[in-house]
Fold each of these.
Amino acid sequence: MKFETLAIRTQTKRSQEREHSTPIFPTSSFVFDSAEQMRALFAEEEEGNIYSRFSNPNCTEFEDKMCLLEGGEDAVSTATGMAGIFSSIIPFLEAGDHILASRAIFGSSYQILTNYLPKWGISHSFADPEKTESWASLIQPNTKMLFLETPSNPALDIIDLEWAAKFAQQHNLILNVDNCFATPYLQNPLKWGADIVTHSATKFIDGQGRVLGGIVIGKKELIDKVRRFGRQTGPALSPFNAWVLSKSLETLAIRMDRHCTNAEALAKHLINHPLINRVNYPFLESHPAYGIAKKQMKMGGGVVTFELKGGLEYGKKFLDNIQMISLSANLGDSRTIATHPASTTHSKVDEATRLSVGITNGLVRVSVGLEHIDDIVADIEQALGKI
Ligand SMILES: *Cc1c(COP(=O)(O)O)cnc(C)c1O
């Protein structure tokens, strides 16, 4: 079956009421018919729900769908995207190991690598996403994992997944890809040869800014270890949030089509604006990795960034002039959201580090929503006009 059909027709067991739409299973534990059944389930001789930290029908439905949509063998859902990313790293590394990561990764992923892993003797190196020819020189005898994000948040760097998978295989690394910006509808890293894919389901997968969630998907033998880690340390997704996210997947394809056409239209509209130095969007021919984006993504995604000529001051003025669009830290919502990373999310990062990951002083990130494109463009135009 095709993507849209799998996203709608993959359903967990119905209850005895024979409801058409999956119900919510808000239960912390499950009952057993006998001591023998209980023993067999705990011994993992039989499959079934025991306790919602281990599994729950709503989480299983969300995991089954995401597995099919990403082309994975197994998946584990988590309470947030960060819980997923943490759970996709820790089970595979030990003291003395080294992780190679793209420099352009989400801020909290960067913090895991720089603030926490070193405490346990796990070192890291950062690689420039635009200079993959230099990556081989960063490999050490103890390098175990390659961690990357494409397109990256917020700079929209693109890394060639086919190349990355070959590189990882050649150096015997686990290739772990944060696929949050693309969603499984636009890009499937596992199909290019990645070993693990993570998502913050909080973003486009939920798509309406309601719940937090995450997921780790990949090869069976790797996900077994992630599941065991989750069972013991407890980053479980709640049944209610899993239900919301599974329902959201039913409309992911149709929503992403609109996010992408709106985003591309906005990007093209802004290209020649006199206050803007540069517009970034993976499907603009001016993007440095346009050819790679076209090869591995179905459409260009729902996020556009642009650089205002007047730096920090114009960035703040622009946000203050916005009327309809939301100023919010989230993205992937049906409502268009604008942020100015240099004065907000990345204001505590020193300028040199910010610039090295493409966060210039005038950079504005727009998560393009599902409103009519004319209204989105009009708000941005009037906000620029008043600067
Ligand atoms: C938001 C985000 C995360 C973290 O997800 P949470 O659900 O907020 O924990 C990770 N990676 C990327 C690319 C993100 O945008």
Amino acid sequence: MEKRIYNFSAGPAVLPEPVLKEAQEQLFTLPGVGMSILEISHRSKKFDEIIANAKKDMADLLGVPDEYAILFLQGGASLQFSMVPMNLMPPVNKADYIVTGTWSQKAVKEAKRVGTVNISATTETENFKRIPAQSELKLDPEAAYVHFTSNNTIFGTQWMSEPEAGNVPLICDASSDIRHKPLDIRKYGLIYAGAQKNIGPSGVVLVIVRKDLLERSQSTLHTMLNYKIQAENDSLYNTPNTFGIYIISLVGKYLKGLGGLEAMYKMNKDKAGLLYDCIDNSGGYFRGHAEKGARSLMNITFNLPSEELEKKLISEATKAGFDGLKGHRSVGGLRASIYNAFPRQGVADLVDFMNTFMKNNG
Ligand SMILES: *Cc1c(COP(=O)(O)O)cnc(C)c1O
């Protein structure tokens, strides 16, 4: 088999190797079933078991209380930009959005089609290098909800703790940092996350929603866009992404085996620390985009003294087996995405590589 390289892609992203191997072993026939996961009915007993396990592991890992529903839907996080306001904005038809990057802006764009959007705060004029402080938020106590993006995948910033929204339900796009540390789910009305960063493969979006909020979904909504109906049908109103949910169940089992989210958080702080230390000890050669107090543990964004050197580093790194380091065009430079499944050795090797590059190109 060909050697695997280090995959720093922002998403779809690296998956745990033991999960890939288990899926490979079981792909031809699921044990005891005689058919592949790609061939079985979503109404079969075996699939019932798979989705139940995926949900249970999600609930155990994140400590999801009984008064919340866990859904595995389709259309990515991007469809949630629409489903959230369609289901939750009426009847007051206004909501607060905190804008900390490109994905928050996209969420705002869809919400405006449904009702009035109040931008509670934005750090756009600073190219999203920081997260607003609680004192900067202009929150409307009558808003239907407050929406924020917990980790800004493109800019490499992250909320250290949730914004406080009082009695207004807090809604979070946690696509790029869900399950990187333990959360207090009770602080949230709804959390959504595209699976392809920290949950599993693309094609599934996780939605965790407090059940009382399902009463806001009006019967005039299209069926597939209605949270209440999706919850009543346990994510099986139509054919779900059966393979994606199967891989999610394997990743969940694997994370539990590693010691759950407390253990993940320790590993993530350690891994990100290696790279941030390299940046901070480079005498300004490497410059982090995010302000120190807002640094993401998942996406580490940085620049070099010139665009030319950035290109050179990316090109040499690619040849050396470090893939996906090119930054998003809105920040430039480099971005190392190091989600839960990214190996510590890969970060350590990248740090060595960067230090050598700096010596040779200083
Ligand atoms: C990747 C990402 C998205 C988009 O997810 P899709 O599943 O491709 O729609 C949305 N929000 C954040 C924070 C992301 O990182």
Amino acid sequence: MGKPNLLLLALISTLVVLVQSEDPYLFYTWDVSYSTLSPLGVPQQVITINGQFPGPRINGTSNNNVIINVFNNLDEPLLFTWNGIQQRKNSWQEGVLGTNCPIQPGTNFTYKFQVKDQIGSYFYYPTTSLHRAAGGYGPLTVHSRELIPVPFDWPEEEYIVLTGDWYRKSHTELKRHMDNGKTIGRTDGVIINGKQGKGDGSDPPMFTMIPGKTYRYRFCNVGMKNSLNVRIQGHTMKLVEIEGSHTVQNVYDSLDVHMGQCYSVLVTADQKPKDYYLVSSTRFTKTVLMTTATIRYTGSNEPASPVLPEAPTGWAWSLNQFRSFRWNLTASAARPNPQGSYHYGKINITRTIKFVNTAGTVDRKLRYAINGLSHMNTDTPLKLAEYYGIQDQVFKYDIITDDPPADVGTKVTIAPNVITGIFRNFVEIIFENHEKSVQSWHLSGYSFFAVAIEPGTWSPEKRKNYNLVDAVSRHTIQVYPKGWAAIMTTLDNAGMWNMRSLLLERNYLGQQLYVSVLSPARSLRDEYNMPETQLLCGKVKNLPFPAPYSS
Ligand SMILES: *[C@@H]1O[C@H](CO)[C@@H](O)[C@H](O)[C@H]1NC(C)=O
Ligand SMILES: *[C@@H]1O[C@H](CO)[C@@H](O)[C@H](O)[C@H]1NC(C)=O
Ligand SMILES: *[C@@H]1O[C@H](CO)[C@@H](O)[C@H](O)[C@H]1NC(C)=O
Ligand SMILES: *[C@@H]1O[C@H](CO)[C@@H](O)[C@H](O)[C@H]1NC(C)=O
């Protein structure tokens, strides 16, 4: 993985006007192409970035400016999103079809964003077509600034573990299935950093550890369908970070990592010097799919034991593990003040929104929905239509309601799904899952407090079970079958933000929506102007540039 050029602003101040002046820049140039690789041992078409799968690591420090010049050498339009990067005032860079026109084949586009006030483990992935089923994802890590204390010692090394399920079929074939109204069914295997281990001692080591040293492993579930359990033979894992928050440092034998989630753990090489397997296996599936990666103690010549540590079973274990995750109130995150100085539990809720994931058919084709509405992408991105003031020609706000009726699961309709949020409102969002499979939700633009996950259905009395003190501030949350989850957040980031199911099939077939949060004053304090370099398409292609926001 190539190191980015790190230049000081003084050298290049003319290049970028949007981003803050004093912070360093990270530059990347990406060639996005198809390659033939064999993640599951059989050659297939994979999306690589600069020839790599997973793609290159974006790695920096809080407040760095990230500039990525993406050359689309695929044969289809392309966008990338930066899962978990909040894009303060800047949904222009979100990289989903509701905010951006896609990058056409044979052309390039430059993303410019700042990882403002964030630390932690994230990943990026392509959001267009079904590209994610062909890879194209990679890690994005943000470190604390030098003077800000981190609640653990700098590890000997950091290891990225992007793990996820995988299909043998190409993304075009999978997409054809869904476009014809069918499900794409079960995945075929699990991979770690693009590879399925043979698990017979013949795989070269993916990670090495020096006896006595401590390593940070950053796990992310970048798959499409399944929750995964990760564990390391003979070793425990000390949890230190979840999606940008420093946690209370509990020790675990294994971790459930649901779709789209990231966790950092510390692992100390304190066992007999030999090889050990890192295992990643599917949860809640009849047939368990799994893979291994080899961790070698330096100087070892003893293979890993073929006896793999068992995965936990059942939902209850997973739910209890969620409940054990706590924000470390006294640790710093991106800012020097302690995380717990923001007392979210004392803020009055101004709005409660309930989202129920539903499924059904429209014209005999399978669709997935939120509160009965299945999202449809538009030729003119929602954000652009709104900015140019022509939203009435493209979509309707608030088709769904905050409190869906009890029979919401019985009917599905298709339309752009956009709800409005009032700038700076403190909202409570309930996710109810009446279905039989685990759900995982991501909200872009924000981090939220994951205050509860429980079985059954939600009612206002359930608020007494919320963790209002030290729930982890993060950006994804799982919801177990026949269960619910509650999150809280302040809508203080103006923009058009995607809330999505991270299950690829559900997402592609409409289980996502957008939250439009407008700056009431159209002020530059709240939101950046559309960059002059923004790609234009659909109805706004030839319209005059709208009046800029005022400062
Ligand atoms: C990632 O960035 C941090 C902070 O700039 C740096 O200390 C670290 O060496 C980088 N790691 C890699 C693998 O580039
Ligand atoms: C495309 O790449 C060229 C060469 O690096 C660069 O000068 C140009 O600004 C890029 N265009 C866009 C739209 O990002
Ligand atoms: C929380 O962070 C503080 C400050 O870095 C650290 O001293 C403490 O050990 C951490 N607490 C737990 C329970 O992890
Ligand atoms: C929250 O609501 C309570 C009861 O309605 C009220 O007494 C209190 O002043 C409110 N607090 C804030 C910070 O608005």
